[in-house]
Amino acid sequence: MKTVTLSAKKLPSDLQAEFGEITPAFLPIQNDIVLEWHSKLAEQHHYVTLDQDYDISNFERSKLASLDITILNISGSSSLKDVLHDVFKKLISSHGLKSNEIIRILYGDSICTKLPNTFLKKPEAALIGQTQIQNDGDWYRIKESDITFSGVFQFSYQMIRKIIASSNDDKDFFDKIISSDNFELVQTNNIYDLGRSHTYHKNKLTFSPARHFNKISLDNYVFTKTGPIDKINAEFEWFENLPVGLQPFTPKIFKKGRSKNQAYYQLETIYESNISDTIIHGKLRESSVSKIYEQIENFLQKSKTYQNGLTINLKSEFNSKLENRIKSKKMREFIERNRLQPIFNTIYDAYRKANEKILLESDQAQIIHGDLCYSNILYNFKKNTIKLIDPRGLTLNGKEKSIYGSQFYDIIKLGHSAAFGYDLILRGISANDIINQENIQCAAEHYWDLQSITENKYSKKQINLGIGNLFITMIPLHSDNNRRQLEFLKLAQYIIGTI
Fold first, then answer.
1. Where are the beta strands (DSSP E) in 46-120?
2. C-alpha distances out from residue 116 to 9, 37, 119, 186, 403, Å
């Protein structure tokens, strides 16, 4: 059965403010996009409708290719009944569809995580998914009830051709579908509406990810993070010990506690998107990206004012952390599994030679976030403010809890997202594409223009060497994804090789 995701219309204005003029099916859901969830429901060929004038990015095109999804270009201003007519005509004329062949239709601005059994057991039936209306909006109400279409349908062109031809508008079309005995209404649960800003932010929390060492749960008010005791306590104490002048950059913190052999802490739930989603997936105006970076610069400048008078042996701590990660069991397994020892030795030798000449010997300790990557920076487009989450709260060697460190570490953590596409790797883009700048939309130029870089003591070579170090040290942390580990190593090899 062919599957078609309807996504020719652009986002409503409230979501466009965050993501620019993208289409709903490309909305980010953590490290995925909506289409990746739709592809899980597609049995054979999968298509997506895009407006004929839609400016598809290299990143979006790469995503479609990896998911093996074919574009159907239609008018984004057409009514739903006309869109369905155009979809069937294109599939019949160019993609081998028969007029009596059933296809599955999915709304591009929602996700169904599990199809009802009726859809699986009746592949030859005309089925219309229905669901309870969860919030206010201009919904089509089935028989004036609190039930609306779920955005999951299956039928053939033969089944709806006459209804389309005889309908004056979409409401008339829907009314005739409902009144027809040829269509079966099927209750559809596990539906998440993403078509409005408030429903997008609320429902995407359902898909909030958890790393293998962390567990996350949340509701409208409280975000709870559970994990290893030392790590969770360090993060909590970072929030707790932050001076008043930096507290506006973080969510409100509530409490910490113990749960069996783990610890947890609770913060207020923040609905804003992280800038990994908005910058990587979105098509923001340059002015919007500039505002985001102004607030990042604001944090970097203010955090400089809080120093504890100590000096950090930066080179020693960086080298110690790198050597510990290289000696770890997961790093050894990665190298052995992929037979990379000769290549890895070459990369590491090049790093050590550059390190002796370039990396800073020492730096002044100040308050730092410690993990200032795109996914830990939430941006509020209405207020023009950022909120920082998931701080490190530990010294670089991981042995002591501290809110202090070298700002060099915050600079390179931001740089591995902005200048070298860390977030793109998480989303399935290859290191080669990033190196060749085929999918780069990370705002690298804004990063290198930061005052904290241009007017600081850190040179571009030093920053790049630090980022190369970062990509190597992250390899054992992603042992659940061998492809990702390989891409990190390729990026490290490239970065170190250019110094």
1. 46-51, 69-74, 103-107, 110-112
2. 27, 15, 6, 8, 49
- The CATH homologous superfamily to which domain 2-195 belongs is Spore Coat Polysaccharide Biosynthesis Protein SpsA; Chain A (3.90.550.10)
Amino acid at 20: G
d(CA 393, CA 231): 8
Half-sphere exposure of residue 491: CA atoms within 13 angstroms, side-chain side: 33
Indicate if the pLDDT at residue 144 is higher than 90: no
The whole-number average pLDDT for the span 75-96 is 94
**pLDDT(362) > 90:** no
Q: If one looks up domain 208-271 in CATH, what number appears?
A: 3.30.200.20
Instruction: Read off the tokens for 474.
Output: 């992250």
Beta strands 103-107; 2-6: pairing state = parallel
pLDDT higher at 457 or 379 = 379
Please give the pLDDT value at position 440: 62
Locate 350 and state its tokens.
Answer: 């090049």
- Confidence class for position 380, pLDDT limits 50, 70, 90: very high
pLDDT at 208 (0 to 100): 66
> At 408, is the secondary structure helix, strand, or coil?
helix
Name the helix (H) or strand (E) containing 372. none
CATH topology agreement for domains 2-195 and 276-497: no
Distance of CA 298 to the CA centre of its chain: 24
Distance CA(472)–CA(344), nearest Å, equals 10
Distance CA 427, CA 197 (A): 23
Q: 165-195 pLDDT, tens per residue?
A: 999 999 999 999 999 999 999 999 999 999 9
What pLDDT score was predicted for residue 390? 96
In degrees rounded to 5, what are phi and psi of residue 214?
Answer: -130, 150
Give CA–CA dist 69/268, Å, rounded: 38
CA distance 8 to 74: 7
Q: Which CATH class is domain 276-497?
A: alpha beta
Neighbour count for residue 282 (Cβ, 10 Å) = 25
Written as one letter, the residue type at 304 is: K
> Taking a C-beta distance cutoff of 8 angstroms, is the pair 331, 475 a contact?
yes
The mean predicted confidence, pLDDT, of the chain is: 92
With CA atoms as reference, report the closest residue to 304 among 363, 244, 365. Answer: 365
Q: How far, CA to CA in Å, does 110 sit from each of 106, 196, 400?
A: 8, 10, 45
Domain coordinates of the chain in residue numbers?
A: 2-195, 208-271, 276-497
Least confident of 30-39, 79-88, 281-290, 436-445: 436-445
Angstrom CA distances, 284 to 280, 287, 291, 315, 463, stand at 9, 8, 11, 38, 26
